[in-house]
Design brief:
two-stranded parallel ribbon, 2 domains, single chain, 6 helices, alpha/beta, elongated, Leucine-rich repeat, LRR (right-handed beta-alpha superhelix), 6-stranded mixed sheet, 35% helix
């Protein structure tokens, strides 16, 4: 009984990752993992963590459910990493209470809008090699961006060369709509597909009529070759 009581009393959720430092900040747990040469997000972050600093590491990806067990998180700092890929469910489980998410100064070119639009957190997305497209435009329109860093969201690549190197907000203010460009492209693709289907139907009808005509001619020749038919003639 004493053994089981001891197990229940151990604060399993309060252990600290070996490569990090855990402190108290205003009565809330802060997990500091800055500049620790991490290549992935630690899996043993305490469940009661409120502030999580993972900046200045070598993290390349945020996988699905990376923070799912950390329902108390309010701030996540992932700036100055090498992040290239963010999964759609990367921040699942922390959407409700998260107040700040810093993804600035990474290698992010695109991001699934589903990963961010469910968040109420203030986002920092500056200084990434963004590919300006419809998904990024929707994030800019619908997500809660940090106003101090929004001007640093710059088009590293874009559908048209004239937008490269310009702040995305400036491009959108000029009347550019990347989503309408995608819609036009989809419309053209749909038109081509419908035209191809229609052409196949026409070819099929022509072949069907020609085949029936040939069968009718052969049947007529056969009837003419019968003896009774020749006598009647």
């Amino acid at each position: 009984q004493a053994f089981f009581c001891l197990l229940l009393c151990i604060p399993w959720g309060s252990s600290c990752p070996r490569s990090c430092q855990c402190t108290e900040r205003a009565g809330a747990k802060a997990v500091l993992c800055s500049s620790r040469h991490l290549e992935e997000i630690p899996k043993d972050i305490p469940r009661d963590a409120v502030f999580l600093k993972l900046d200045a590491n070598s993290i390349t990806r945020i996988p699905s459910n990376a923070f799912r067990h950390l329902s108390h998180l309010e701030e996540i700092d992932l700036s100055r990493n090498a992040i290239e890929k963010i999964d759609r469910a990367a921040f699942k489980g922390v959407a409700a209470g998260l107040r700040t998410l810093d993804l600035s100064s990474n290698h992010i070119r695109s991001i699934p809008k589903e990963a961010l639009l469910a968040l109420n957190a203030k986002l920092r997305l500056a200084n990434n090699p963004w590919h300006c497209e419809c998904a990024l435009q929707e994030v800019l329109w619908e997500a809660r961006l940090d106003p101090d860093s929004v001007q640093d969201i710059t088009c590293h690549t874009a559908p048209q060369e004239e937008y490269v190197g310009k702040p995305l907000l400036q491009v959108l203010d000029a009347g550019v709509n990347f989503c309408s460009v995608r819609q036009r492209t989809m419309d053209v693709a749909m038109f081509i597909a419908m035209f191809g289907w229609f052409a196949m139907v026409i070819v099929y009808v022509i072949c069907y009529v020609r085949h029936n005509r040939e069968d009718a001619c052969r049947h007529g020749d056969y009837l003419k070759s019968l003896p009774g038919t020749q006598a009647h003639a």
